[in-house]
Amino acid sequence: MSQTAGGLNPSAGSEELAPLRVKWGWIVALGIVYLIAGIMALGSVVMATVVSVFFVGIMMIVAGAGEVIGAFQVKSWGKFALWVLLGLLYIVAGIVTLQNPILAAAVLTFVLGAALVASGIVKIVLAFSVNREQSWIWVVLSGVVTLILGLMILARWPVSSIYILGIFLGVDLVVAGLGWISLGLGLKRVKA
């Protein structure tokens, strides 16, 4: 049985997509919400950066609390103290993040820039180790773009930390919104 790129069997598409087709309007509406949020984020990248850092801080506190609770569930395990310590470190890091979001944004931006540089270098190295008949140039191009983005972030760091996370959030929301809108409109056009 053949599958399309999206993973759906064309002959079974009507049955599989029927529940989505009925709600195509809601999917488009979700896309519009994402798109508006993304445009707002891009309109105020500093605020979007602060909001994303606050979200990271809150998630760190939640994860830390989960670690501590998890540790107490297996109290008899020999590594109980380390597990509790890990949870407490997450909680402290989350609190510090919430208390000083600009510092947290600077740290996160530096880590992001360094990770992009490392990822770009690894992609380039991997591309040159692949057989040249396998579209290796696209992997090189991807690595070069990733490397340049990382270097651009690091070259302007710590100033870039004020806006980079907001830009990434805004672009992600816009692309996701366009994706949902496209999916919803596509579902509307497909005949049952």
Provide an overview of this structure.
With 192 residues, the chain is mainly α. It has one domain. The protein is built from 7 helices and no strands. The chain has helices spanning 13-22, 24-43, 45-73, 80-99, 101-128, 136-155, 164-189. It is extended, with a radius of gyration of 22 Å. The model is unreliable at 1-12 (pLDDT under 50).
Low-confidence stretches: 1-12
The largest sheet is: none
Estimated radius of gyration: 22 Å
Helix-strand sequence: HHHHHHH
Count, helices: 7
Instruction: Give the total of beta strands.
Output: 0
Helix/strand structural class: mainly alpha
Choose one word for the global shape. extended
Helix content: over 70%
Give average pLDDT, whole number: 84
Our count of domains comes out at 1
Cα(first) to Cα(last) distance is: 20 Å
Strand content: under 5%
Helix/strand layout:
Elements: H1 13-22, H2 24-43, H3 45-73, H4 80-99, H5 101-128, H6 136-155, H7 164-189
Helix pairs in contact: 2-3, 2-7, 3-4, 3-5, 3-7, 4-5, 5-6
Q: Summary?
A:
The protein is mostly helical and 192 residues long. It contains 7 helices and no strands.
Label this structure with key terms:
192 residues; mainly alpha; 7 helices
